[in-house]
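step: validate -> pass
step: tokenize input -> pass
step: predict -> running
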Amino acid sequence: MSSALNNIDQSPLEAVKDAVKSFEALTADEKLGLLWVLYDNMGGSITPAAPGAANPQFTQTLLSGVKAMEQQEQLEFMRNLVEKKDTEYTRQYSAFTKDNKLVFWYELALLMTEGEVIPMPRNYSLPSAASELFNTISQMEFNDQITVLRDAVIDMGPAA
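step: predict -> pass
step: emit ->
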């Protein structure tokens, strides 16, 4: 983990860039775990923070497809997204606007919480690098937190 993440003299823009860089250095499963924990902790604030996502119905087709998958297929789909693999489903995600990508992960986290999509293991705890990054992001201003989330999810899936 970059020591810059703990530098309180850092500008918010530098802190966001460092957080995104640290996110990108995580493994696929660490990224998924961190996204789930972040959305679980701040999810209710994400939809209003993405005003450009006025058309969340665009995410519903992909979410319906994910819900129809077996749980292991759901997990594989999520891993494929963070690993930027080119599949039918990840291409659908790549076509979303950046705000709809943010909303997609929020809606996916809701479905995980409701048990409609493979849930996180009951006793899940973040590995140390992801936990440190979670703490860093949690201490940021809300708009910077949203920017980190948006920047983390925007490039997932294959290049559009």
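step: describe -> The domain at 12-47+55-154 is CATH 1.10.2090.10 (orange carotenoid protein, domain 2).
step: cleanup -> pass
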